[in-house]
Amino acid sequence: MNRKDLYRYIDGQFKINDKVNLFYNINDDFSDTISPIRPSRDFLDICREPRVELIDCLKQEYQRDEWEDISRYFTTRVIRIFTYNNQYLYFKRESQEKLKEIYRGFIGNIYTLLNRKKIDRQDIEMELYKHSCNLCDFLIATNGNDIFNRYRNRYIDKLVCEEYSARLQLKILKLDLNHIVEPILDIGCGESANLVKYLRKLGFDAYGVDRSLKSNDYLILSDWFDVDYSKEYWGTIISHMAFSNHIWHHKNRKDGYVLDLYNKMEEILQSLKIGGRFIYAPSLPDIVSYICNIEDYNIKKVKIGPNMKNDRFYTTIITRV
Ligand SMILES: C[S@@+](CC[C@H](N)C(=O)[O-])C[C@H]1O[C@@H](n2cnc3c(N)ncnc32)[C@H](O)[C@@H]1O
């Protein structure tokens, strides 16, 4: 067994658990409790005799890098699942390091278990249960309680996070391609980056950033918090159903991280060239209150459609003057 096989087992575990509500049935009483995370058949099989191959593989991995790579693999996969199911979750770099430590501990516990003479299914369940508890603590510590109150059933419903055609986005964002200033950056461009690809096809110098996409020389796989936007660089920054939606969500939550988003917004605005524009939809009602140096910007709101009454159904165009 080698690292590739190990990753295959890990993928199998994630596959059967990617919709489970980790908070389901979690309480302080460890007895008589079924872990929300279920062991896959493959995982149960490799825990049976003979386990030497798995033990050897984990031992080698430990000697190589003290399980650094495997725990990073676990961490990347699980964060992808968390944010796929709920786009409003956010994990700072430091917290991702903490999560890696949780996984290192988990691998250590499984390793100890494997070295026992005899393992029951219950022992495995208990390890998974403890791990579920650790993940729940981690989620609350990083994202607060509020957001998880809606997680009630055994399986979670993915929060809506659609992607839209380039044509629709162009229409909503009121982009005038005859006068658009380059380079263009689409923040939260989506996995398929429809608008970025469309603009590039037309010959525009366009880029996209999203934490769920396949990166290439114009698509950046990153959290928008971790991007260095540079100063006075972008001609046009767009964000359709992404950045402003997150501000709205976090502003309306007791324990949201709206201040971090305001700070990022400030940085995004400063990354515009003079005459550059940040265009986003939906709008935010009190945008002015969190822009410092307001005199440097011109703010315009344009109604998305004639029959849309809600004051968020506007596109906001902020020009750096
Ligand atoms: C509703 S989708 C909109 C996608 C695209 N703008 C469109 O209109 O088709 C929101 C996008 O924001 C991305 N997103 C959410 N939070 C993010 C973050 N912190 N960093 C980077 N991307 C993020 C999601 O991955 C998702 O692709």
Description:
It is a single chain. This protein has helices at residues 3-17, 41-47, 52-65, 68-85, 93-114, 121-143, 166-173, 194-201, 243-251, 258-270, and strands spanning 184-187, 206-210, 219-221, 234-240, 272-281, 297-303, 314-320. Strand 1 (184-187), helix 8 (194-201) and strand 2 (206-210) form a beta-alpha-beta unit. It is elongated. It folds into 2 domains: 3-148, no CATH class; 166-320, Rossmann fold. Strands 3-2-1-4-5-7-6 form a 7-stranded mixed beta sheet, with helices on both faces. The chain is α/β, with parallel strands linked by helices and 321 residues long.
Short description:
The chain has 321 residues and is an alpha/beta fold.
SSE arrangement:
Blueprint: H1 3-17, H2 41-47, H3 52-65, H4 68-85, H5 93-114, H6 121-143, H7 166-173, E1 184-187, H8 194-201, E2 206-210, E3 219-221, E4 234-240, H9 243-251, H10 258-270, E5 272-281, E6 297-303, E7 314-320
Parallel strand pairs: 1-2, 1-4, 2-3, 4-5
Antiparallel strand pairs: 5-7, 6-7
This protein binds S-adenosylmethionine.
Regions with little confidence, pLDDT below 50 for 5+ residues: none
Ions and ligands = S-adenosylmethionine
Q: How many domains make up the coordinates?
A: 2
Distance between the amino and carboxyl termini = 61 Å
General form = elongated
CATH architecture group name of the largest domain: 3-Layer(aba) Sandwich
User: Main sheet, how many strands, which sense, barrel?
Assistant: 7 strands, mixed
The first-level CATH class of the largest domain is given as: Alpha Beta
CATH superfamily of the largest domain: Vaccinia Virus protein VP39
Mean model confidence by pLDDT: 91
Give the neighbour order of strands across the main sheet.
3-2-1-4-5-7-6
Return the CATH topology of the largest domain. Answer: Rossmann fold
Strand % is 5-15%
Tally the helices.
10
Radius of gyration: 23 Å
**Class derived from helix and strand content:** alpha/beta
Helix content: 40-55%
Number of strands: 7
SSE sequence, one letter per element: HHHHHHHEHEEEHHEEE
